[in-house]
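Let's practice the habit of predicting before peeking. Look at the sequence and jot down your guess about where helices and strands might fall. Then scroll down.
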Amino acid sequence: MLKIAAPKVPPARVVHVLDVVRSGVSALHRRMVPPPVALLEMINQCWATQAIYAAAKLDIAGALADGPLTATEIADKVGADPDGVQRLLRLLVSKGIFARDSSGRYRLNALADALRSDADASMRGFALFVGSPEHWEHWAHLTDSVRTGDPSVREIRGMPFFEFLSHKPEFGAIFDEAMTSLSELSTVPICAAYDFTRFDTIVDVGGGRGRLLAAILQQTPQSRGILFDQPHVVEAAAEVLAEQGVAQRCAVESGSFFERVPSGGDAYLLKHIIHDWPHDEALAILRTVRAAMPTGATLLLIEFVLPEGDEPHFGKLVDLEMLLSLGGRERTAQEFRDFLAEAGFELARIVPTAGPICVIEAKPA
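Done guessing? Here is the structure:
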């Protein structure tokens, strides 16, 4: 039986301090050059993104998994031009991705290792999604979304984003891999930050294949779970739950969270569900959950909570992704308080994690 290791992450407050330091260093770095130069460097970050995408697409990290290779040897393995590979890696090494030894051979380092598809916390899927031609075409229409306030993907694809994924299965598979990568990266910080042991029954609404719920159940041996998602999503859940050793304590149900969710839970968990939807649809989801919750149950939203100030936050980038692709949004603490009240809940507390997301705890009002 494969089990997720016990969480070993720094306290959230320590990570927050480090984020403040990193932000200060970045600001100092920008102030050390003339403003046009600093802006030029920021503009050119899109080129580095495409270089990472090219390395991921060619699976150069996978080619180096068995040891260092020359650019020619890498090119032979991945089916590319030796000079092109050398020029690509010259840039990436300068960015700290991959390393080159004294003999001129390239090898994996910590950042490059995360581009392996079989790495413990692989970012290859996310790199393939962000750098894909489809995603770049979407972001080329950000200006349209800013002008109208509506998702541009619906206009350029002629259908909503999730429907487009089903119509283009190759891109849909890349998206699924990207979301799995991000989800697995956040699982340990969530389990380390929040105590789920007080809940007898945990309902994961829109929980995908059950990886987060399985991790929670591994740490709460007295609890049982109910995984709820669309039929085609939960088809593969049984394998995941069995692999993690929690299948006997976890039921699987399918349906639409716009219509119903399982009743009788002590905690209702929704991870990155609410931010996907426009206001009215997100409100409808929460009201459906509210109707199923017994007296004393707890709502747990796992979402980005944007800072009220102007400091950098990963959620601010994701917020534009939501605007562009889905018509959803990220929220500040006060916006969550107001939104939850509209859905019939009272915000109890917000628990930060060692990552950029928080656990938002609410009770029926």
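How did you do? The first strand starts at residue 99 and ends at 100.
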